Amino acid sequence: MGFLVGSFALTVGCPAPRMGVDPTDAGDDLGATPADAGDDVGAAEDRPTQTVDAGRDVPTAPVDGTGDVPATDAGRDVPLTPVDAGFDVPTAPVDAGRDVPLTPVDAGRDVPVTPVDVGADVGFDVPVDAGRDVPAAVDVPADRGPCSAPGQMMCGTTCRNTRTDPAHCGFCDNRCTTSFGSAQCNNGRCHEEAGYIALGARHSCTAGAAGAIIRCWGDNSDGQIGDDTTTTRTRPALVARITYVRELTAGGAHTCAHTEADIWSCWGDNSAGQLGDGTMTDRRGPTPIGNSEDFYYYVGGGNFTCSATRGGVQCWGANNFGQLGDGTTTPRNRPGAAVMNSGAAFIGSGLPGSTLGAGSSHACLLEFPTYAPRCWGHNGFGQLGDGSTIDRRAATPVVGITGVGRLALGGGTTDAVGGDNAAHTCVTIAGGVVRCWGSNNHGQLGDGSTMGSSIPVFAGLTGSARDLCAGGYHTCAVLNTGRVWCWGANDRGQLGDGTTTERTSPVEVVGLTNADRISCGLRHTCATADGNVLCWGDNTFGQLGDGTTTTRNVPTEILW
């Protein structure tokens, strides 16, 4: 988690029972009188029969203007009068006496030109140009023609979905290209295939599956978006000066990334020294961390940050609850002091994807090689899992658990980054089973109750979890099937089940069937699926990335 997480067709056609029409101007210079389509705009009902000149060398066909008899063909055996629309397509006949309704032809009024439906199965309506300098409208009915679906466009001789096709993204022949991994097209915009994802309290970030650039969105009051501004963003914005990342994490109101050439950088809120640059000055763009040569992996907490190193774990930032694990409550603005009792937790390779986690005011690591969890920091709700509610300034074993695959630490606060008013911890163990401990005031432990626990309890999740996140007061898991289940607080729709009903047992997120990774914020959640990012929950600061500030209770694609 970061801080809180363990880390378009329009159909036109108006019926006209009978048509009494004056001559129709078919795009020539004759200045013919507009045809009345049976409405109340100047129909020439009592005029003698007049003719419609189609602009060709065929006999002019008289049209009966009385409305009492069908129009006749001038000497032919068919009752059709051709209307030349001035295009290079065959002239579309106007039926003057069949039992199908006809669309009126506007020859010169101050309304947009209306297409004439020829009743054919050609998949489109032929527009009639009334001789004005505006293009004729082409109607593409949703149930007719090869390019009728929203977002489709005829590119050459083939219909292409310009919303999703990376070879025709946004418009024909606009090919998405990238130097890192595969390119994606979503909502007509090119982007890297989404891989990394990290949520802070009120902001969200993602990076490409093969690294590449970082994009962030949401609250930016402390510069946590990293675009060198403090402007809140409702859709993804590029983080400045970073072109490739290996790791990405978000804290309460700060963000950190491991960039190419092993440069570790952070940006955003630095009021407690959580950026690790030796100052307490907020940064609006990536700023290198001091003494980071030996870092392996790191995570952002509420207003502190921790990293795995060759010798164990180091943390910096706020330390009011002992969350730096160095045996003191002294804050630090740069790495240096090791977490006590951390052992050789991160020496070696082949480590799980989540061997270190940080919540709002506590942190946990996995010992090597047993992968037994040890936790430290605030323990007022039993979130350290040692059977007590005593704060710990050094890493302390969790009761009765080994073989952990994923760590997820959460915590809700009144100001998003201050002291806890709730916190919990969850892990996956052998077989993808989820166990949780700590605060349960909203059912975030998932055991069907609202009773907290200082030792691990089983979440009532059916299926094997491969990824896990913990938010302010909720928890979510991605199953091996790609489906997502969540439980706990749901006041802002953060469970994604289409409601705002609190759940003490897991419920399935609506419509997510192929999710890869998941991350939880204070009251919002995001997941990656098929190379895209979908978010749901609180959107007060635009943290869902859909270009709005509208709260969503079901997954919604971000707008790249």
What is the count of DSSP helices, taking H or I runs of 4+ residues?
0
Strand order of the largest sheet: 9-10-11-12
Helix fraction, binned, reads under 10%
How many whole angstroms does the radius of gyration measure? 33 Å
The largest sheet is: 4 strands, antiparallel
Low-confidence stretches: 1-144, 346-353, 414-418
Summarize model confidence as the mean pLDDT: 77
State the distance separating the first and last CA atoms. 22 Å
Shape: globular
User: How much of the sequence is in beta strands?
Assistant: 25-35%
Protein described:
Strands 9-10-11-12 form a four-stranded antiparallel beta sheet, with no helix packed on it. Strand 18 (304-309) and strand 19 (312-317) form a beta hairpin. It has no helices and 37 strands. It is an all-beta fold and 560 residues long. The chain starts with 49 loop residues before the first strand and ends with a strand.
